[in-house]
Amino acid sequence: MALNLFNPFKDMIFDPHFCFLSGDLTTETLTIFPEWLMRHFKFEEEELALMQNTKAKMVAYKDLKLPCAPWVKQKFEALDQQFKAAYDQGYHGMKELDELVIFQWSGRIVYGLLYLEMMGEWERHQDLGKAFKFEDKLRDRLGKFHHMMQSLIEPISFGERKPWSIVVFPLKYSADICSFRDDIINLMFQFGVNGFGFVVSFIDNGVTKETEQELLEKMKGYTLHPVQFEELYARFHYRADLLQYIPQHKLNSTAKGLEIESLPVEQTNPELPLYGIWVDDFYARLLSNYWQVYGIEKGQILQFQKPFLSYLENPYNKNFIDPETIDLPW
What integer pLDDT is reported at residue 1 of this predicted model? Predict the structure, then answer.
């Protein structure tokens, strides 16, 4: 079954009059962040810095909207209901939730913010009378992400190996806190509330989760402290930075539609390791950004003749650190 899929990255056209996911002409919009989430945690009026015409513009979360056809919006509303039902059951509900739902729900936010910036850049180039261009590798990568998000509205399925790394775990937070972090460069997402948290690496073909499997096994049975949650995301983030191979996918036409086959990410060049060299100085700088809320600076993380500071693993025996022994606020 051949599918004629809309792909804005093919011709680099991001016209706000067309649905961001289907390409249909529309006057309807969809908020990037689900309305129930913004209301519950009261961040509708808070602002986010959005790049517009090479300058950062502050926009309220409730005003972050995408052009969206009514039928596509209905699909997202149904998805949101499915996610919310699991959310209401806490960790156990989220643990049983299909990873595809987590991928699509999180992708609405990350891909939505990416698309919003693309629209701004496209309009700027239109005003300047210039063509909006990207290098081919980036266009291909983002176009694949778009097709994966279209699995919500088109007969698109995934093979046995999924294109993502998703980790869900118990998390202890203050009841009124919702922590999330989106990364439209590395295509990653972090989400945490009291009860559970999860981390998504969208198109890494599962290699990040495989690489960190030993640590993830040690985590089982524990309810993470927020400082551990931040450190885990930092590790996923740095792994994404160090990965030296581009995840590859095959698009297979089937009787039911399109199947996206994600290939294992492996070292194929003996002179090029799977990951670049792990540099503690760079990682400490990255980690300190995530630990700012605790006042932990790079100089405390990386000290001369002292082991690298970690709240995940004991530096001497590599045992997982019991969250209840961490003397930091929840």
Answer: 54
Residue 128 has a pLDDT of 87
CB 70 within 8 A of CB 26: yes
105: left (phi over 0), alpha (psi -120 to 50) or beta: alpha
Give the pair of three-digit tokens for residue 150: 């279209």
The Cα 246–Cα 150 span in angstroms is 21
Tokens of 40: 């519950």
pLDDT digit string, tens, across residues 197-218: 999 999 999 999 999 999 999 9
The Cα 154–Cα 158 span in angstroms is 12
Question: By the 8 A CB rule, do 177 and 160 touch?
Answer: no
Nearest CA to 225 among 311, 117, 124? 311
Helix (H) or strand (E) holding 248: none
CB 100 within 8 A of CB 86: no
Name the stretches of the chain with pLDDT < 70: 1-2, 52-54
Backbone dihedral angles phi then psi of residue 197, each to the nearest 5 degrees: -145, 160
Residue 4, pLDDT score: 82
What is the per-residue pLDDT for 163?
98
Report which of 257, 14, 235 is spatially closest to residue 126, judged by C-alpha positions.
Answer: 14
**Domain boundaries along the sequence of the chain:** 1-154, 159-330
**309: number of Cβ within 10 Å:** 17
Residue 231 in contact with residue 310, Cβ under 8 Å? Answer: yes
Strands (E), 95-162: 156-158
d(Cα 72, Cα 66) in Å, to the nearest integer? Answer: 11
CA-nearest of 88, 90, 75 to 24 is 75
Angstrom distance (rounded) from CA 136 to CA 146: 15
